[in-house]
Amino acid sequence: MSWGHRVRVLCLGLAALVVASLFVGQVLGQPVLLGFVETGSMEPTLQPGDGFIALPAAVAGPIEEGDVVTFRATTVGGGGLTTHRVVETQGGQFTTKGDANPFTDQASGEPPVTRARIVAVAPQVGGSILVLPELGTVAVGSQQVLDTAARPVSQATGLPVATARGFVTVGLAVGLALALTSEGTGPPARDLARDVGVNRHRITQVVTAAVVVAVTAAMVLPAGAAAFEIVSAEQDAPGPRVIEQGDSEQANYTVANGGVVPVVSYLSGSERASVATERVVTAARSQQQTTVTLSAPAETGLYRATVSEQRYLAVLPVGVIDRLHVVHPLAPVIAIDLWIGAVVYGLFRVTLGTGRTRRRRADRPGAVARRLRRYL
Fold it and tell me: From which domain of life does this come (predicted)?
């Protein structure tokens, strides 16, 4: 394999990784490796359409003042994912603000951002985030192209546009996989044409593994615990979480789903927190609210209560997920991975078949010239 071909394969592989991360991020409703902004609220740090490296919040470490985070907003921009900078931290809650905005999000009505609502953090090098110019413009344009291609499929088959978009994307993935693996298996110095094989079974395995990893990340990364700071005081006082000793008050807990697949969430409270609804089913591109009762101990002081969330993609019947969750929190993850992996594997197996596709490689300029001379 020549160096030129290696570079070509590497470039195609990186392009595939970028496209896959952006598409999976759109499907799951949270950044996966890469994120982007669509407005100018973060200027001059991020221009509209700029992209950035996005680390999942679960592995990003402590959130500090100055960090740029992507969180699930409730009021900013009408709700949904928002990328702003943390300007203040207090009691496990964060005040956020766009670099170009004169006021904080909280001054505009957004509740303080909790760790549970942060889905990604933009890593910084020397105090500056890693900017990928116009990445978001490409992502939005690609999404529009996919939607345009999916509409005729949807009209012809009666499938929802989101489902048709998935089939179109799978077709593009097959084409890209063929492009990545169909050339360069023989040494360039060979004079004679040779058969070049495309290992279709390996393509199926790689694509299936990538999908399963993305699905697992969509269920594992958003899971975690949301913390509530409680001040047990001698008497109730204005302000969040200031509760008279031995008394309790209620707070809202939001389960947001920015993806195109419904999710099933299981909530459990710590010693000083109890949830009104232990299982919440959230439809695609929507959110659900439940109530958390926070109890102050008899002794005054500062305490912490937590609500833990386990999240699963609702691709299996909810009753099945219920029974698996009782066995172990990881049991639904394994079952869902096996189900989605089997579907993807079967789809690619039927589409591509098995074995190797053989084709003659006789298109090198040297080989063509030699054959022409022999003919003459």
Answer: Archaea
